[in-house]
Amino acid sequence: MMGSMSTVTAARWVERWESQQQRYAVDREERFTVIADVVEHMALGRPAPLILDLGSGPGALAARLAARLPDAEVTAVDADPLLLALGRAYYGPALRYAEAVIGEPGWLDGLAPNRPVDAAVSTTALHYLSEPTLGRVYRELADRLGPGGVLVNGDHISPDSPRLADLAVVIGRRHAERHLAFAHDDWDSWWTCAAADPELAPLLAGVGPRRHPRCEGNDLTLSGHISLLRQAGFAHAGTVWQFGNSHVLVAVR
Ligand SMILES: C[S@@+](CC[C@H](N)C(=O)[O-])C[C@H]1O[C@@H](n2cnc3c(N)ncnc32)[C@H](O)[C@@H]1O
Predict the structure, then answer these.
(1) Which are the contacts of 228, defined by CB distance < 8 A and separation ≥ 6?
(2) Distance between Cα 232 and ligand 1 center (Å)
(3) What element of type H or E holds 186?
(4) How does DSSP classify residue 80?
(5) Is the CB of 101 under 6 A from ligand 1?
(6) How is 160-186 classified by DSSP, letter by letter?
(7) Could you say which DSSP state residue 192 is in?
(8) Residue 65 has what pLDDT?
(9) From the CB of 62, is ligand 1 less than 6 Å away?
(10) What is the pLDDT of residue 159?
(11) How far is the CA of 179 from the centre of ligand 1 (A)?
(12) In this structure, which residue's CA is closest to atom 19 in ligand 1?
């Protein structure tokens, strides 16, 4: 747990984070809406569904899910203590927050100790994982999701054809230009400016070695993800929404 920060400071950095992320997640808000539609539909009839947002950052997706499903227990999971602290201060008690490095041994153990997970969601985060780590994470999630449980992953994923993959990048860039996404911080400037904020600097200094996770990355195309999900034990896997290379990939246990 990091030290406290004012709500005003948290709001400033979460709002800058939201703008910054629009550079990297094409049609991000619509992606969130589709993920929430899937989870809401799949959770019908489940009292107090348990939802994990993997690689949540401050918790934008988790917060939208908590608003759409007021009876749900939504946990925002991330390895980065600063982003978790910003989310705690900004979104307040509607969400639970858990610091964990996804893919490390036992990472899921403390997150859902006594019951199956109903939905695991993620946005713009699982591309950090190498293919072997992602395969292991998919298997662990398949084990922890109950029957009918769902994994919903919104991320940039390349179409299989290299020509279409290039085209998907162009489509995404044109969308971002039309929506002035490049007028905001990029990733590096957000982190540089946050580190220079006198209210955040001591928090960052106190984190020690627990820092932003390294992006190992993978080259999986859409069909690569789908076959990894099927190997992990998901009965159904495929895209339900796409804009450029921004996909919402759904896998049902
Ligand atoms: C590009 S950010 C997206 C954050 C958030 N989902 C959003 O859309 O605003 C990627 C996030 O994934 C987290 N992340 C990456 N690899 C992780 C890992 N192995 N374990 C936990 N969190 C991880 C990062 O700390 C970061 O917050």
Answers:
(1) 131, 134, 135, 138, 220
(2) 22
(3) none
(4) -
(5) yes
(6) SSHHHHHHHHHHHHHHHHHTTGGGS--
(7) H
(8) 98
(9) no
(10) 96
(11) 24
(12) 102
Distance CA 253, CA 248 (A): 16
Note whether 245 and 169 are within 8 A (CB).
Answer: yes
Probe ligand 1: pick from 78, 133, 204, max atoms within 8 Å of CB? 78
pTM over 0.70: yes
Beta strands in the chain (DSSP E): 50-54, 73-78, 96-99, 117-123, 145-156, 236-243, 246-252
Least confident among 121-125, 199-203, 239-243 = 199-203
Give 1's pLDDT tier (boundaries 50, 70, 90). Answer: very low
Q: Which token pair is 77? A: 């999971």
SS3 letters for 183-243?
HCCCHHHHHHHHHHCCCCHHHHHHHCCCCCCCCCCCCCEHHHHHHHHHHHCCCEEEEEEEE
